[in-house]
Amino acid sequence: MEFLELSQVISIAMVMLFLFLSGRILFSCWITPTLVYQKLRRNGFGGPTPSFPLGNITEMTEKNGGSSLKSSNITHHDIHSSVFPYFARWQKLHGKVFIYWVGTEPFLYIAEPEFLKKMSAEVVAKSWGKPTVFKNDRDPMFGNGLIMSEGDNWVRHRHVITPAFHPTNLKVMATLMVESTTRMLNKWTTLIKSGRPEIDAEREITTTAGIIIAKTSFGMSYNSGQEVFKKLRALQVTLFNSNRFVGVPFNKVLCPKQNLEAKMLGKEIDRLLLTIITDRKKSIEEQRRPSQDLLGLLLQGSRAVDDNPGKSLNTQELVDECKTFFFGGHETTALAITWTLLLLATHPEWQNQLRDEIREVVKDKDHDLDADMVAGLKKMGWVMNEVLRLYPSAPNVQRQARGDIVVNGLTIPNGTNIWIDVVSMHHDPALWGEDANEFKPERFKDDLYGGCKHKMGYLPFGFGGRMCIGRNLTFLEYKIVLTLILSRFSFTLSPTYSHSPSLLLSLRPRYGMPLIFQPL
């Protein structure tokens, strides 16, 4: 009898567990997202019809064949339909503001600057959230660093980091930038002399940018910087080069291998950075004088902010900020320079114009470049702005509503994810004219916004109070590296180059950037 009673209890418990799990799956995968979908439709938002629990992932992951061009065929830069074919398709059907679904997560798609202006006017910087689904998914890479932090946490982190990008500190960084770039260019000279003039500029410049950020911001050795860089790159590929059903409930169970690999890589990077942080702490204690690079200032912030211990950064926050800035600090600049070399290789007249400007402004002081000197390179500034328009390193901006937002009578509910399509707005003929997909740096000659018909239509570094904090560092590094390259080499596209911009969190050339270099 006792055995029968026990077996009945176990059976009932198993049935209850089954019903609980079934109910949770049913609500997570179908009932809850269906109710949210109906609410958004009632609020006036259209968009592609989702199929839960995948939402619109099936359409988004369809292969878009025939999107690459050989180097000789690059006559325009209309990349939106190849980078985001699904958004280009949906825009034609639903306009420039609509809802699409990543699994069971709703995203408000925006490619309309006036709508974006009205929406951002309703929310102060610290009140924006980041999509929870991405925060959880990208935790191994960014943790709760500045990119992902919110509210008062974001204010606290930004307050600690801002002094690192003061002009005084940037001047110190310039010397290290010149040294690292010169070493790269000396290597190129050796390769050319040995009969190998074709060089993958993307790989070379990304590596050098990693070395620059490692030295200038963290005081790392070459080997330590390379180790962190390689593991971050492996983590980037693991997170963004495969469909892991992000946004689908229980996706970590569906893709255990990739998720475990990302988690392990994240922990390895944490351990490496923690060792570097610990060594720097000891060095500061011995010298009793903190350095003014990013890591030195972060360590000061780990003690207290404005003498308020409640605002200090803990050890994990230090590690997260190091990861965030090591990745963001080299990726953005390296890709801007890489795409610039593509555009200058296909427009040699602009190579010549920039060299003339360098001779006039820099003269023969290229080994003594500093922030004040490169600030005089106005045409190079136009080129950079045009490159960031055509090939933005950050091709989208993401937010999450932390309260209901009303725009044009439409209510964006609390918790709605927001995806701002920067590539679309940067290539929109309605904003830029019929030459929107042509390389014309002169459009920025007398206008900070390049003649764009709406100021919110040009977002190379984001918008509002959450604009990229390191943009002045990017300007400086971009001009120094490009000045040194143009002073020593001319270059053309290799016949092996295949034009296929692709998304790997950032916008990068899928097959690298092989160029033919010729010493001047």
From TrEMBL:
The chain crosses the membrane at residues 6-32. One of its GO terms (cellular component) is membrane. It is found in: Membrane. InterPro entries: Cyt_P450, Cyt_P450_CS, Cyt_P450_E_grp-I, Cyt_P450_sf, Cytochrome_P450_Monooxygen. It comes from the Eukaryota. Its cofactor is heme. Pfam families: p450 (PF00067). SUPFAM superfamilies: Cytochrome P450 (SSF48264). Heme binds at C468. It is a single-pass membrane protein. One of its GO terms (molecular function) is heme binding. Keywords: Heme, Iron, Membrane, Metal-binding, Monooxygenase, Oxidoreductase, Transmembrane, Transmembrane helix. Belongs to the cytochrome P450 family. This is Cytochrome P450. It comes from Carya illinoinensis (Pecan).
